Amino acid sequence: MPEPASAVALTVNGALVTVERGTTVAAALLMAGVATRTSVYGEPRAPLCGMGICFECRVTIDGVSHQRSCQILCEPGMHVTAPATESTNNAEGRQSSHREA
Amino acid sequence: MPASPANDHFDLLVIGAGPAGIAAAVTAADAGLRAALVDDNPRPGGQIWRGGAHLPAPARQWLARLDGSSVVRLQGWRVFDAPEPNLVLAEQNGATDKTANANPALAVLHYGKLVLATGARERFLPFPGWTLPNVMGAGGLDALVRAGLPIAGKCVVVAGTGPLLLAVAAHLAERGARIAAVCEQAPRSRLATFAAHLFFEPGKLWQGARYRWAARTGRFLTSCWPVAALGGDRLRSVTLRRGSRQWNVACDYLACGFHLVPDTELPALLGCRIVDGFIATDELLETSLPGVYCAGEPTGIGGVDLSVLEGQIAALAVCGKTAEARLLARKRRRRLGFVHALEQACVLDPELRALATNETIVCRCEDVPCAALRERDGWREAKLLTRCGMGPCQGRICGAAAEFLFGWRAESVRPPIFPALVSSLAWGPARQTQNFSAAGALSENSKETP
Asked: Which CATH architecture does the domain made up of B6-121+261-343 adopt?
């Protein structure tokens, strides 16, 4: 377990997640088992390239959408929202996620 | 109104803080130049020198030299445009139009000389199921593990082509992962030629050690690749094929990358001459544009040692230390055989083209299936009629796949090369209203899709 001094607590879709300092948001999302976005056809997606190229890991961080979570480090008190959870079972997923994309 | 952008002039601007970029910036700063280093990642080191404590000694030494140098660092900034000669625009990751009011989200970077050390990314080939969560690049999974993802106890299949596969497998094993298989698409005969080459490259011997590790564990399969990734909401298993044999392997992650392709968007935007996908340079690494140099993977995929050497050569040339630069250039020339051998070893088996079925998504941003692309005449037509390559990644992932599948090559690059805030995009047109009356055409829509 990480030492308290090196731990960072943030929320992912409202749930508290604790990671070691220096962890990227993408790694935290994978640890939480959360898909990052819903594709145009409604598929769940998660990080692919891990290095800021593919944009599959983009999420909303502290209210700011389209952030590449692999390029941003977890900060204490950060609120991360992965839109995938909002529209996975949405019949209109294709429409809404296309706008999101 | 947004805060005024950070506006500065540097003798040398280096783009990309991987081994080549760090070596270039540090070498130039040591010679007394005012140098700046811009990089998209949260930490310096690029992809190969990621992850602090676990790095080899040369990496730690260069990173320490960077810390002790006078190099001005913009870490976590992405360059999105080069609207005028000797000028690039960069935006801070995580900045918003709202915070841009208080903190400059935009950096206007003027330079005398430029070193492009933009690095490389993995080549991804589409196959059924490759869009499932937990199917990642080989370097991609490695990067995420170095960025904090726990891997101990997880079962991983590593697949694709290139020496990176073994490096990744060995590293993940060190971290406690169970490596079910390492599948290399190239035949064993071709790898033997390449492995023999390693013995003439003392700096590459560590890779030889990886080969021995793989041979010992007995899970290194040549002429072998994944034909499908299976699972509902995430990956559960991978179907592998070797010759006529096909079988299923349960796993938590599939780390799959088919060697590397250089990041040439920015050099292309600037107008550097590109030959066969790589940036053309002279012996001292100056591109077709005077004062613009290129170092590292965009000149040819040659690995970390060659990248460091090229960073040093470019910086010495920029400083006018031509004799020293030529000395290192001779050393570089001797290593170019390795670049060629690597390229030969990683040539893709034509059978891999058959992996993508009609339904397989090729463009992940826009969910364009392979069938929709087969009927198209080229990349441009595919973009216009199917939106392939038109999403936020701008064809960085599907472009290399389409090149292999259909022989298309992206013809042009247009700014912004990364999505940017409206306030950042407004900088250029606002300055150039005397030239462009259409500055008002900027709208919210231009934020994501240029």
From this structure: 3-Layer(bba) Sandwich (3.50)
